[in-house]
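Problem statement: downstream parser choked on a complex file, so we are re-checking the raw output for the thymidine-5'-diphosphate run. The parser issue turned out to be on our end (a line-ending mismatch), but while we're here, posting the original submission so the record is complete.
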Amino acid sequence: MTNDTTSRMTKCRISDAPVVEFIDFGKMPLGNGFLSEQEFDSEYFYSMRAGFCEESKMVQLIDQPAPEQMFHDHYAFFTSTSAGMCRHFRQFADDVRGRFLGGSDAFAVEIGSNDGTFLSSYAEAGIKHLGVEPSANVAQVAVGRGVRTISEFFSPALAEKILSEDGPANTITAANVICHIPDFNGVLAGVAILLKKNGVFIFEEPYLGSVVEKTSYDQFYDEHVFMFSAMSVAYAAARHGLELIEAEPQITHGGSMRYTLCKRGDIAPGASVGRQLARELELGLDKMAAYEKFRLNCETSKRRLMEVLEEMRGKGLAVAGYAATSKSTTVINYCGITRDHLAYICDTTPIKQGKFSPGAHIPVVPYEVFKNNPPPCALLLAWNHAVEIMAKETEYTRQGGKWIRFVPEVTLT
Ligand code: TYD
């Protein structure tokens, strides 16, 4: 059933200019909405469409469920479940600390601090810090490991409150969080309030350029309201007296970008900004034509993936989904993958195990089910962790186990 809390957006969330739809993914459940059999009848669906605003250059979802539907006490994503991501966050934290947190009065804020993975090294080093994490159960884990955390949504009002209690921040960081927040203008207004002179706001998010280049359409799901680019971030920042001073590509999430903003004029922009903006012009990210082409590429990808899965089904070869990612919800529901195509999805996250995938209701089982009784074929749903997974699964591959991939192209090897 479709719930009526879905809000329809025809105006850009950044500029008030119109957003033009370029892809309709159809009826979609929540990306992270793994559920029990008893919850099937009340499952939440919304219409997932993405659009582009010529004025702000922002790509965004047109309809989005209310945030309360998505980030709540049972929110299932914990940063520290992937070894690669833990390493990445440790490096990110060390880098920020080395560059910006030298003074004895340094103060570091993180928006969407999850289970405290990023801030824990600051806590250990005695650096003053504060995590802002709306999901209470996840925030509790951070508090348990000694990371000072409040369970609230970041807003200008909260920025004022933090400023009055703790003073201005040298750094405000966020990873895979800012694109989740529909009120990006509110976040930037809050950042402008809380940032110290010469302070920086550094955030990294899945990158639009990578999505377009790799046809990784599965980065679109309810939590990702925005698919940022250097162009759109620079535009939005300027509306709040902020300036983009670095744009550094990251390999995480199959292609992310780390953006650094400061108050306008505080720090001169580095060469990376001009470089990324030029690259984006080359990709045509400022024009609707790039997104029309993206849609055609998505349709081709969907057709090919279903051909491969149908072929497997025709041959009676079982296929298992590998990793119950949020992204997999988009692939499974957009392509029309059913229990007839995937016997199960294996995943290492205990709270997803024993549940069913959103929409298609494919059983999610512990990783050991795959390990102990390997199927002839696996669909690599966590393609962004391919290096880590392939290293772990050399035995499966050596024994003739096949992999179906769909990013950047559909292959069976
Ligand atoms: P991620 O790409 O972070 O997912 P999302 O699309 O939700 O951002 O992958 C995390 C999920 O993948 C999590 O459910 C755990 C699972 N996973 C495995 O089951 N095995 C693995 O080896 C890896 C790396 C992830």
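For whoever reads this later: The chain has 14 helices and 19 strands.
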